[in-house]
Amino acid sequence: MDENLKKIIPFAKKYKVHVIWNIIHNILYALFATLGMVLIFPVLEVLFDKQKKVLAEPVYTGITHVGGYAKDLLFYHITRLMEDPNYGPNFALMLTVGLVIFTFLLKNLFNYLGLQHLMKVKNGVLRDLRERMFSKIVELPVSYYSEKRKGDVMARMLGDVNEVQNSFFMILELIVKEPLTILFSIIAMLNISFKLTLFVFIFIPISGFIISKIGKSLKSKSIKAQQENGYLISVVEETLSGLKVVKSYNAEGFFKKTFFDSISRLYKLTNSIGKKNNLASPMSEFMGIVVISILLVFGGNLVLVDQSLSGSLFIAYIALAYNILTPAKAISKASYQVKNGLAAAERVFDVLEVENEITDKAQAVELEDFTKEIDINNVTFAYGEEPVLKNFSIKIPKGKTVALVGQSGSGKSTIANLLTRFYDVSQGEITIDGHNIKDVTMASLRNMTGLVTQDSIMFNGSIADNIKIGKQDATEAEIVEALKIANAFEFVSQLPEGIHTNIGDAGNKLSGGQKQRLSIARAVLKNPPIMILDEATSALDTESERLVQDALERMMQNRTSVVIAHRLSTIQKADHIIVMQRGQIVEQGTHEELLAKQGTYAKLVSLQSFES
Hints:
CATH superfamily of the largest domain: ABC transporter type 1, transmembrane domain
Number of domains: 2
Number of strands: 10
Strand order of the largest sheet: 6-7-8-3-9-10
Largest sheet: 6 strands, mixed
Radius of gyration: 37 Å
């Protein structure tokens, strides 16, 4: 059994009642599909007045003779009707035709009921897979997405999961409905003529061999097509995200070429897959017709020359042989689509089975309060091979503001990533009130911290929705208070719908300074005891910076703050300033103490003063 098939089964177990009912209805469908063809025989017998006369009511002698008993019982009643002057041959014909119609009605009813249950299984598994997939995507650490294209993850979440739903559950048709239709038809055909049925036994394995040869490379091509689809979505997502840069650098041509190259590759792959998919049905039908043609020649000889088979029985036999063609076509087509589903399932489980390295320990404790200090002790960390932090140690007492300054790449933002456990330290430890942050639950750790980043991340929705992210049950009064502390209430109150104004995709209806102040309001509303400000003012103009800086100072009152700053004007009031260079501390002290040393910090201040 394919590994991905085994992985899907637990998702389907939840819907086992529907799976069982689907199997039951498929068995009944296959039974009545065969009976419908078998009942053509008595219709023909009545038409040609060749029916076997059964004058005595047959006796049931056991399950092994049930076929003969049913046939004799039917002909017994037909004989009575034919010889009864009140009814006659016409009524007997109407009865047999009515039986055929009723049998086909039951066949299609059970087909419908089976499809209804299959639909519930497919849609249920689709929902569960999407839930599991989205949960996994959100739970995976930030480091996972530094290596992956977002578009590819989106393609797996949407396209591949859909493909699993559309193709994978055809396996229920493959193992029950169509094979049973073939099996029941062959049993009926063996009862009519053993010699003729030998041809069918030769046809099935040959057909299966040819179809499997055609579809051999289908799974690998399906995986390539799904990967290309992921790349395609990535190109669209990146182009839309960076549209201003694309246009300002006249790079439309480059991005168009990248997109067109991708869709050309996808065009060739999907054509190749489609060619093999399209070949399955005609190939199986052609082979079926070849076999039926041979049956007509050989069977016609038995009817006309040997006279060992009646014409009406032979026609019923041909109808049964043709009854095998439709399921054979369905099996060949479904087997290809299942290969597509297996390829898609492989990509889905690639994400679901990624090991999340940053998780809560089994005995993780809740961090309920912050009372003493944060201790970063002898920490070494590397994103790749080269360490970004080397034996880094600082203590941050409760209620104090500690600023980290230094050139780009000195490891300042890495401290923010480690404090919030976006990444885990390679060596050393970070403790809060003596608790190693690896030993506390991530939810309680992140409840203790508020993060304001350089990139003001906003979501499409209202101002209130964006601010309430950290406190979903916040009242309008609390939102307004947070906006006032963040120096944002003035501009928000002038908007058409106030805090209920939609700010557009990524907040693009607002300026950079306005978005940043909303980010601060979001952190204020959450009201955590530890605030982490990662270059919160570096992307702002002077006026916006003054407003944001004022908001930050209000927010940091009575809080423990870690301020990562590029602009030194924003951290002069910090209790302690740490100057970093290549992942190590080169100087530390207050603003005045560091200026007096005339070292690295003093140089940075003079450079920024000169720049301004």
